[in-house]
Amino acid sequence: MRPSLLDPLFSPITSLAGIGPKVAVLIEKVVPADLGDRAARVGDLMFVLPNSVIDRRNRPGIALSAEGAIVTLEVRIDRHQPAPRGNRSVPYRVFAHDDTGEIALTFFHAHAAYLEKAMPEGEKVIVSGRMEWFNGRPSMVHPDHIALASEADKLPLVEPVYPLTAGLSGKVLRRAIGQSLERLPALPEWLDAELMRRQSFPDFTAALQRVHNPADPIDASPENAAWRRLAYDELLAGQVSLALVRAKVRKLHGRPLTGDGRIVNALRAALPYQLTGSQQTALEEIDADLAKPERMLRLLQGDVGSGKTVVALLAMARAVEAGGQAALMAPTEILARQHMATIAPLAERVGIKVAVLTGREKGRDRAQTLAGLESGEIDIVIGTHALFQETVAFRDLALAVIDEQHRFGVHQRLAMNAKGQAPDMLVMTATPIPRTLVLTAFGDMDVSRLTEKPAGRQPIRTVTLPLERIDELVGRVRDAVAEGQKIYWICPLVEESEEVKLMSAEDRFASLQPVFGNRIGIVHGRMKGADKDEAMRAFKAGETRVLIATTVIEVGVDVPDATIMVIEHAERFGLAQLHQLRGRVGRGSKPSSCVLLYKDPLGETAKRRLSVMRDTEDGFVIAEEDLKLRGEGELLGTRQSGTPGFQVARIEAHADLLEIARDDARLILARDPELVSPRGEALRLLLYVFGRDEAVRLLRAG
Ligand SMILES: Nc1ncnc2c1ncn2[C@@H]1O[C@H](COP(=O)(O)OP(=O)(O)OP(=O)(O)O)[C@@H](O)[C@H]1O
């Protein structure tokens, strides 16, 4: 049971002043925690850390302020010049001066009453914002801060800048974060005093305060002791939790799984292709693990399109051959059904019975599947997380395959499994993460890598095209359809509150339908499950040739004869996502291409991302570039800043802490395996603070 001390951090953010359900949805987008199905909590807000700071200590005076610089000015207000009635293009101007010169403070669509109150004529006022020159005269358009000189202490000197999303203002977010810090209870120290001294770590609360209320820009940087302290806490929580999971998982006895090869060989013979060398090697490694009496905990890592599914299938076939059952858990419903569609025909040819189980299976079908799993009549079940969350009883689950694609946080699921039966575990990931990250995200699992693509694949030709030239593109797509090709056309998710006008998937569908008639389909997240299935089926079968889609198709969708991928507003997507999306084509033997449609003007980071995409198809190279470009925070709706799987730690800045945390965790658990000493008790709190509840539950009296 979670100590009630922590309750304030676990209440929903809507319990904060000024946060209604709508704002809450926006805040959930910038919260770095992997929220999964849950709503954001007050405690998640503490870890929304600044991307950068604005230094407002620069007070050069009007005449000496450089154009474009952020400055703070103490001025006397001379005169208000309201905008003329009925002409909204002329701004409201406030003229003011200091000892060095004069300035015009400019406001569009201004609220006159507010401005008069904030800047009374004749008064001294402090304004802070970006200096501009207009018609040769100093001006400031919409100062960020305005305060009477007598209330100067209300102005932040160094202001943190947080990641934002359309519709969410920095002010609202800052207030919410401020409230979360106020609710933080006094917590006992969980770190070793000697380590804190050596690293100059402040205590947890002080560290959060310093990062959110920097007195100097350095206070809010990841290299600073305050941020490093928080990163260390997170890494330690991760390492302790992994160590706990591992200890429990390994304790549960496994059993050797071997077979006579009858089913596996028949399956291999039924495949329409030869396995690649690395598929072959991965299977040998898996077979060797399965044959051992200990439990298998293996990660199968392979870039998009490298052919992980068939490896999973053959591993599951081995488990079945050995007399057990197997389960495959997919990250999305579409993917679960797709796996079902590819696996079922092959499996049935060799006498394996397969069923699908997701939240959508209801009534008699569901009851039948559940009964089949319990009796052992069903050999392999494919589903979503519903598989493990519910009380699905197996006769004898021998192997669980978890298709993580590019999600992280697998040890929650491992922990869940540590309680029940003790199946061998194979985790599949398409994220080409560097070794250090494998260690932190997955612990010391054994790793198999698919390093080559199936034979006969051709490179994908990637081009970038400005949105204005969309007509040319439509012409080319029309030709491609006439030749019998299949085209994905991806549109970004659009929020209702979005100010910038973007084409949504539905708008794009409507605009292209006159061109393509009944050869065009659409699939997006808000459609009903059955409609999504139908759209995918029609595209797969070739009834539709152009599929307009949102990123619901990003993960793992496999239509091998699709050859063109159009990504609209490519500048809005992260590199990892672009790579995943592009990986939907180039999966067969025909040449494929990817068109990145972008809207000018492109920011520096976006430009860089698109050029990386043009230059390489190598997932590892892309992952590394991605890490470098992260944190620049110009993306919408995606958690961009930081290292995937972490809220606070940045692998570039904190890699040195990782090893220390790992050794620390080992030492702690060697001395106090159930975390019952005073420090152990404090560490339990740390685990909760970083969302490692599953790990605490594995402890005695957890
Ligand atoms: N050895 C092989 N030779 C030829 N084709 C193969 C081979 N292995 C797999 N394939 C085919 O390659 C395609 C991609 O395989 P699969 O869907 O398993 O990829 P994946 O690794 O899951 O990639 P992603 O992460 O992009 O979903 C499938 O159409 C599959 O049938």
From TrEMBL:
Reactions performed catalytically: ATP + H2O = ADP + phosphate + H(+); Couples ATP hydrolysis with the unwinding of duplex DNA by translocating in the 3'-5' direction
Gene Ontology BP terms: DNA recombination; DNA repair
Any GO molecular function: DNA binding
Domain Helicase C-terminal: 469-628
EC number: 5.6.2.4
SMART domains: DEXDc, HELICc
Signal peptide feature range: none
Record domain Helicase ATP-binding: where: 289-450
InterPro entries, per database record: ATP-dep_DNA_helicase_RecG, DEAD/DEAH_box_helicase_dom, Helicase_ATP-bd, Helicase_C-like, NA-bd_OB-fold, P-loop_NTPase, RecG/Mfd, RecG_dom3_C
Keywords: ATP-binding, DNA damage, DNA recombination, DNA repair, DNA-binding, Helicase, Hydrolase, Isomerase, Nucleotide-binding
Enzyme class: isomerase
Function as written in the Swiss-Prot or TrEMBL entry: Plays a critical role in recombination and DNA repair. Helps process Holliday junction intermediates to mature products by catalyzing branch migration. Has replication fork regression activity, unwinds stalled or blocked replication forks to make a HJ that can be resolved. Has a DNA unwinding activity characteristic of a DNA helicase with 3'-5' polarity.
Family designation: Belongs to the helicase family. RecG subfamily.
PANTHER family named among the record's database cross-references: ATP-DEPENDENT DNA HELICASE HOMOLOG RECG, CHLOROPLASTIC
Protein name: ATP-dependent DNA helicase RecG
Organism: Aminobacter anthyllidis
